[in-house]
């Protein structure tokens, strides 16, 4: 009989905890598309770009934040994926999507399938109008939400464009 190793087995990475169906939906969507980086579950919730950057140890601009708006003409969801260190210019967005207003938490969840702080650019519920801001191209690697405030995944701006099929646009305020 072989000796028993008293060292405990390493803990498995924390999988999707109960109630994080959005994280699993993003994981499945990324796997189906052959994306090289599986989503990571953070030990802390990252509901803001700064919290995500701090948790990952990356620059604020490397966080690909998702900002959801409500188009006034037809109540459609408009999602902008932008660099975490930039603010969306609503007038620039309106020039492409029509006049927009801010979306509340219920609208965000209903139209994207995700809670605020976890809106992923992939596996969105429904078909929101999606734009990617050009400022994300400043970085080789970026991080996006993975369907839950604790979930993130790594990708390049080119991969973001390919995964979403969304157009690239200039949508942030100029310094």
- Give the overall silhouette: globular
Number of domains: 1
* Content of β-strand: 15-25%
CATH architecture: Alpha-Beta Complex
> What's the β-strand tally?
8
Proportion of residues in helical segments: 25-40%
Q: Using the coordinates above, name the CATH class.
A: Alpha Beta
- Low-pLDDT windows of residues: 1-14
Total helical elements: 5
CATH homologous superfamily annotation: YbaK/aminoacyl-tRNA synthetase-associated domain
Q: What series of H and E elements makes up the topology?
A: HEHEEHEHEEEHE
Judged by helices, strands and strand pairing, the structural class is alpha/beta
**Overall mean pLDDT score?**
90
The radius of gyration computed from the alpha-carbon positions, rounded to a whole number of angstroms, is: 18 Å
Distance between the termini: 70 Å
What keyword list fits this structure?
YbaK protein; 175 residues; alpha/beta; eight-stranded mixed beta sheet; single chain; globular
Protein topology:
Elements: H1 21-32, E1 40-41, H2 49-56, E2 63-71, E3 77-83, H3 90-97, E4 100-102, H4 105-112, E5 129-133, E6 142-145, E7 151-155, H5 157-164, E8 168-169
Parallel strand pairs: 2-6, 3-5, 5-8
Antiparallel strand pairs: 1-7, 2-3, 2-4, 6-7
